[in-house]
Write a structure and sequence with these properties.
By secondary structure, the protein is an alpha+beta fold. Helices cover about 35% and strands about 15% of the residues. The longest helix has 23 residues. The relative contact order is 0.16.
Length: about 170
Amino acid sequence: MKNVSLLIIGAIIGALATYYFCPNCAGHEDVVEDIIKPAGVITSKEAMVLDEAFNSRHQLISDSIVMRPDNRSAWWSIEDIKNYIKYAENQSQELGYQMDGVRLYLGAYPDSPKEGVGYTTMFFVPTGTQALSEGSSMPLDFKRQGGDIPGGDGLNKGNMGDPPSANYPN
């Protein structure tokens, strides 16, 4: 009986030690990951300067091409962006590429008799380099931007600004 009691006490102590000393285990949602500021982060003031510099181009497009206020922004949910990145990484691997980022393109919806000239849109495409076979002598950790991944699906259908022609901040 004494051995069974020691075994139970040992199991309880082991479980408690695992719980308190294992930061990545379930139940430790309060653990904060290191936050790294990405390269290229700009202040809101810098964003306003960029937005204002685009005004003349936007006005030209709106007045000369679409003959109405054109779209200036797009919005995607965090969930959609995270899901797209996971999807694109998986698809890139299937296509034989190592995804290293995304590129954002400006586009426009096709003209239609009903809608007229299509609104401007923005879409992401995955970028990367062709994956090297496992026996390669090329180093894999050099920093270089890959090109668009051929056959990689893009992400479009972000919500337009409200109103579409609104400046930053909206």
